[in-house]
Each structure stands twice: as structure tokens, then as C-alpha cells.
From TrEMBL:
Its cofactor is pyridoxal 5'-phosphate. Decarboxylates L-threonine-O-3-phosphate to yield (R)-1-amino-2-propanol O-2-phosphate, the precursor for the linkage between the nucleotide loop and the corrin ring in cobalamin. Gene3D superfamilies: Aspartate Aminotransferase, domain 1 (3.90.1150.10), Type I PLP-dependent aspartate aminotransferase-like (Major domain) (3.40.640.10). Keywords: Cobalamin biosynthesis, Lyase, Pyridoxal phosphate. SUPFAM superfamilies: PLP-dependent transferases. Residues 81-314 form the Aminotransferase class I/classII large domain. Pathway: Cofactor biosynthesis; adenosylcobalamin biosynthesis. This is threonine-phosphate decarboxylase. One of its GO terms (molecular function) is threonine-phosphate decarboxylase activity. It holds the Pfam family Aminotran_1_2. It is an enzyme of class 4 (lyase). Its EC number is 4.1.1.81.
Length: 325
């Protein structure tokens, strides 16, 4: 394995990259099956939008409607404040400015934007909690292995960032209640993953009012577009869709595990939005699938791990099955 905390001087490793895959293996972008991300492939159906969602600056009423829907969906206590952001990434980039210190604990491997943000702000990023750190970032459930943290494992002091971008598939695991008793805790939520609308760029930061006020001042006004406010408010109140989607994702994740097991790649982690598999040679399997125009996620620090998202159609499942056989 290479250094988990520092990549090369090139762009940071993420899912996606279909254009590069097309350039290497051919085909058209529309003809590829993208399984490289953890985004729900069956997104929330877009509602009709009022015309002024596109033509007017987002107003207080639209923002309040979204906040009320978010508070109800995640059962956010009244004592905590909520800030909508342009995706969770907008909040991640500003987390280092919410604390004073020099050393942040970020267990590895995990989503690499957290370490990048702290390092850019001059912090030392450590994969160990010892010696004591001034801040801690935990992705819960973790990406890519799906680890869920327990409350007893949380540090007792310092800024605590809990990134729950993938937690909507397992809401019973949420650590949001921790923020009630720990004012230095910030919980991040992502709308794009579970609802499958990553292009909408909508996320949330939840925490004590003084922390959220500081973040709000940094982000500035009109951080979330009118269409995102309207779509988010509608989707977050549709609990029937959420319940059915969790069931479907769970069934599809189990189906994917069976399919990869037959191909000799047992599951070693993940969530119901993405699965992590142990392979004899991750590069070889990724290349083999790419020849069939199916794109997956490999990691620079492991030559065995391959991560797959879920196909969203019968055709996608059939294509994957045929390529694995």
C-alpha cells in the first residue's frame, strides 16, 4: 500500500472519470455503465418546479421549507441548527476554519477530501489519534469499507466532524444525537447519494447554533439554488419513497454480492449504495469490465480492492453478469 494520507501531485482520486475511460476503451459516454460511484442509480423523480425557482434569488420561505423538511426527516432536535450547502463538499472545505489547532485525526482509508481540506489549511493530518489531536473527522458509514463508528469510540474533546453522507441507507446508525451534548460536533449530510441527484449539489451541516452561524458567515448568502431548495424540500418529505428505496437498495446490494462472489470476489465491506470486494487483481478485473464498457472504482492504496455501485436497470444487471462470466 502507498501512503494513505497523501496522493501524488495530480488530481485527487474519486469515482467517475467516464470520459477518460471512453478515451481508452472506446464507445460513447451514454453507452457506458458507470458503477464507479456510490450514487443511487434510480434517482428521486423530479417534481414540477415553480418558475421563480429559476428566475429569482432563493428567498427565505423556500429555505425555511427545506429546513423544516430536513429537520423532520433526520429528527434534528430544536437545539441544533441546520445549514443547507452546495453539496457536502462545500462544508468539508471550510471545516478547518471552525477550529484552532495543528493536528487532525482522520482514520484511513476514507474519503480523501477531508484530509485535503485540512492539509490546505496548514494542519497536520494523522491516521492515529495519538498524541492528542485538536480535531477529528469520521466518515460514518465510512467510504470505502462501510465501517460504522460507535459512540464510545468518539473523542471527548476538540472539533468532531461526522460525515454521514451515506447514512440515509441506515438511519438507525446515525450519530446525530451526539451533537446535542457535544457543541463542538458537526454532522454532514449529502442529498446527492441516497436521492441520486448528485448534480443538484445539495448538502447539509448540522450542529450547535454558534458553529452553524460561523459556517454560514463563511459560505455566504444564496449558497443553494432555487431548484435545489424546491426539489430538496419535496424529496425530504416523501418518506414513502425513502422507505421503499432503502428496501430496494438492500436487495440490490445482496444481489451484487452474490454476483461478485460467483466471480471469485467476496464482499469485504460497503453500504447499500456501494460494495467493496476483495479481488486477486483489482486492476485486471477493472480492465476486464472496462472492455465491456462497465466502469468501476479502484484505489491507489490497494491492489486487491474494487468498489462497485449498483446497476439501475435490468439491462445493467445483465451486462454486468455477462462481463463477469
Amino acid at each position: 500500500m502507498t501512503d494513505l494520507l497523501r496522493s501524488d501531485d495530480g488530481p485527487r482520486d474519486h469515482g467517475g472519470g467516464i470520459d477518460a475511460a471512453v478515451a481508452r476503451w472506446g464507445g460513447t459516454r451514454a453507452g457506458w455503465l458507470d458503477l464507479s460511484t456510490g450514487i443511487n442509480p434510480c434517482p428521486y423523480p423530479l417534481p414540477a418546479l415553480p418558475p421563480d425557482a429559476w428566475t429569482a434569488l432563493p428567498d427565505a420561505a423556500a429555505t425555511e421549507a427545506l429546513l423544516a423538511a430536513a429537520r423532520a426527516f433526520w429528527s434534528v432536535p430544536d437545539r441544533l441548527d441546520i445549514l443547507p450547502t452546495a453539496g457536502a463538499s462545500a462544508a468539508i472545505a471550510r471545516m478547518p476554519a471552525l477550529a484552532s489547532g495543528k493536528r487532525v485525526y482522520i482514520p484511513q482509508p476514507t474519503y480523501n477530501e477531508h484530509a485535503a481540506a485540512f492539509r490546505a489549511a496548514g494542519w497536520e493530518v494523522s491516521a492515529s489519534p495519538e498524541p492528542a489531536c485538536d480535531a477529528t473527522v469520521l466518515v460514518h458509514p465510512n467510504n470505502p469499507d462501510g465501517r460504522c463508528w460507535q459512540e464510545r469510540e468518539l473523542p471527548s474533546a476538540g472539533l468532531l466532524v461526522l460525515d454521514e453522507s451515506f447514512s440515509d441507507v441506515c438511519p438507525e446508525q446515525s450519530l446525530l444525537p451526539v451533537a446535542q451534548s457535544r457543541p463542538e460536533t458537526l454532522v454532514l449530510k449529502s442529498f446527492g447519494k441516497f436521492w441520486g441527484l448528485a448534480g443538484l449539489r445539495l448538502g447539509f451541516a448540522i450542529g450547535a447554533p454558534e458553529r452553524i452561524d460561523a459556517l454560514r458567515d463563511m459560505i455566504g448568502p444564496w449558497a443553494v439554488s432555487g431548484p435545489a431548495l424546491a426539489i430538496g424540500a419535496t424529496a425530504l418529505t416523501d418518506t414513502t419513497w425513502a422507505t421503499r428505496t432503502r428496501q430496494r437498495l438492500s436487495e440490490d446490494a445482496a444481489r451484487l454480492d452474490r454476483m461478485l462472489a460467483r466471480a471469485g470476489a467476496p464482499v469485504v465491506g460497503g453500504t447499500d449504495l456501494f460494495r467493496l470486494y476483495d479481488t486477486a487483481d483489482a486492476r485486471a478485473l477493472q480492465d476486464r469490465l472496462a472492455e465491456a464498457h462497465i466502469w468501476t472504482r479502484r484505489f491507489p492504496y490497494s491492489d486487491r480492492w474494487l468498489r462497485l455501485g449498483l446497476p439501475g436497470s435490468d439491462d445493467g444487471w445483465q451486462r454486468l453478469d455477462a462481463a463477469l462470466r
